[in-house]
Amino acid sequence: MTTINKRSTPAQEHKLQVLAVGDCNTYGIQEPPIGNTILDKFCRCLEQAGYPASSQNLGFGMGTSREGIALMEAKAARADILLLNFGLVDSWITSIPRVYVPYFPDSRAKKVRRKLLKFTKRRLRAPLLRRVIPSGNVVPLAEFRANIEQIISLARQANPSVWVLLWGSPPVQYDAERNGHLLQYNAELHDVATRKRAMYLPTKPIIDNLPSAEAFLDNVHLNEAATTSIAAEMAHAFLSQRQRTAA
To answer: Taking Cα atoms as reference points, which of 28, 46, 45, 48 lies closest to residue 37?
Structure first.
């Protein structure tokens, strides 16, 4: 884990506002739900270094970058720091990808439509049907890129000096094909970060340094040690840049 040196001078004059937008990796699934997310741990790292912080978590289970835009437009507060991650659901291969029912904003009618759509798509997975039924990523790569750029633009409209960190989706276990798609979407995040003057944090090296039992709760979702390590690396990236700017 990265060691973070505490500031020699207090930062009580301003509490940093941290906004996290992403899928279940951002939302968090551990119990209790408050205090165990990557966002919570990132803020604690900042506070330990002398930077008090408050947070807003717009993570969304089963969320794609499409929901990310809707959440930004409907709920996002002005932020000093934006932690942004999508790809786990965006890159998923599904039947008839053009047919999609957003999770946000939600309604009873949408829930019924999603249930019927999932029921239908499960039956389209039969080998014979796969030959004739189109399939593809839930959110195509070009749209994913545009969505990520729009989320960054929305954050910068509220605060032009917001510090933006895009972080790659960790690999899943026992699914090489899915990880191949994740690599493509992570590469897109890296490219957007470069072009939009943001930072990018790859998480695969962090996960690779941990035993599977410590890294994963199941085949997909992150465990306590993984979220702690990722949050520490995020904080190290922010504090390092802060120190370079102040020098």
So the answer is: 28
| Whole-number Å distance between alpha carbons of 167 and 29 | 18
Beta bridge partners of 163: 81
Q: What is the pLDDT of residues 28-47, one digit of tens each?
A: 986 666 678 999 999 999 99
Q: Which residue has the tokens 């060691």?
A: 3
Residue 137: closest CA among 193, 87, 71, 68: 87
For 123-159, the pLDDT digits (tens) are: 887 777 767 788 999 999 999 999 999 999 999 999 9
Q: Spell out the domain ranges in the chain.
A: 16-92+141-246, 96-137
Report the CATH architecture of 16-92+141-246: 3-Layer(aba) Sandwich (3.40)
